[in-house]
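Notebook, student rotation project (T.W.).
Task set for the rotation: take a protein with a known small-molecule partner, predict the structure of the complex, and write up what can be learned from the model alone. Partner molecule chosen: magnesium ion. Sequence and SMILES entered below by T.W., checked by me.
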Amino acid sequence: MAIVTLHEVAKRYGDNPPVITGIDLEIRDREFMVLVGPSGCGKSTLLRMIAGLEEITLGTIEIGGRVVNDVPPKDRDIAMVFQSYALYPHMSVRENLDFGLKLRGTPRAEIDRLVSEAAKVLGLEELLERRPKELSGGQRQRVALGRAIVRKPAVFLFDEPLSNLDAKLRVQMRAEIKKLQHRLQVTSVYVTHDQVEAMTMGHRIAVLNAGKLQQVGTPLEVYEKPENLFVANFIGTPPMNFIRATVSDGTLAARGFTLPAPAAARAALASRQGKPVVVGIRPENVVEPGRRTTGATAQLQLTVDLVETLGDEVVIHGSKGEDQIAFKMDPHNPPEFGGKVDAIVEVDRIHLFDAETEKRIAE
Ligand SMILES: Nc1ncnc2c1ncn2[C@@H]1O[C@H](COP(=O)(O)OP(=O)(O)O)[C@@H](O)[C@H]1O
Ligand SMILES: [Mg+2]
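Predicted structure of the complex:
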């Protein structure tokens, strides 16, 4: 059990510009924290600094109340699971699971107990005598997980452990890892570029972009109140629609149409008369006429540019002049390409961002 605290953590490689800057983050005891962001934003670097595999250029990292900046990885009481599995190919599953414990001088009887417990939890009992090459990708990843859990570490670190698996197996393993963490109650930091993985797995998620922390919160907090345009765009599928507009007497004047401002934002907009804002509308908050809506609404007529069938619904990519709005409809009567479709916008669910700072306008 452990709290992990990052204080003003930064990283630079040689004389290059820093790849991580000013990260302040506390991962609570027994929390499942997901670090999410696009490829190259610094997720692995940050995780490797927590693990001790990468030097910390500036700031401090504490694990369980102890500053670990100068503590070697083996003494940090952590276990890491990688995308590549990193299993020893010439060893059996059992030997792979034993290995770390043997190195630590754990007594044989204790090793056997820990390994059989992990094998049972992960469904590896029948596979213990096989070599990694005789296993499927999902089974290999399970062995990698097993190797982490037999060590009973204070903290689990996961670096995109599911990225090599096919989509279906990924969803299954996602659930298994979540259950495992719930059962073992070990503080965990999980890195992924996949926002759906982040939303479904994390107690809280930390969104990272270009080496900077953008927002930390529960999946719902981040979804409902993205603090800036980057987060608003990154979280949610299909992504939020963005429309440039000008504040005009309590309304939002876009290029080809005008929307009423959300009631909660009127006070904040009073001082922004004539100023440019970015209007964010989630596809979920645009519906076809006749559907149930919440709060004030506005109707727009859109031109249909594209219809994507998902099975249970279709995604309509519509436009109004130069602005695009995507939303979902019942799949049975989709509108025609190039035709017109009426869409109802739930105005009180609109998100507003300052066009210059890209920050959320407080409500
Ligand atoms: N050993 C290294 N030397 C120099 N630059 C590196 C090194 N490792 C990573 N980087 C750079 O740091 C940035 C963050 O990389 P990384 O943490 O791997 O991103 P992510 O895991 O989010 O995809 C990238 O721009 C990458 O090129
Ligand atoms: Mg990475």
